[in-house]
Write a structure and sequence with these properties.
single chain; 61 residues; 3 helices; 82% helix
Length: 61
């Protein structure tokens, strides 16, 4: 039994949409990584402040 062309196109479109949505995680984590890198510049307290930001970015990825 063969599936019809519209069903194949719909399945392909859903697959592409899911792949695109999953690849966008790096884009969401980018501002958090920038904030973490900026916080690390601050002497003494920078690493303490950057640790939760790094953990958050890792969870997003």
């Amino acid at each position: 039994m063969r599936t019809s062309t519209p069903k194949r196109l719909l399945a392909a479109a859903v697959l592409i949409a899911v792949a695109t949505a999953l690849s966008g995680c790096g884009v969401v984590a980018f501002p958090v990584r920038v904030a973490s890198a900026t916080a690390k510049v601050v002497p003494v307290a920078g690493d303490v402040v950057a640790y939760p930001l790094d953990t958050t970015a890792d969870v997003i990825d």
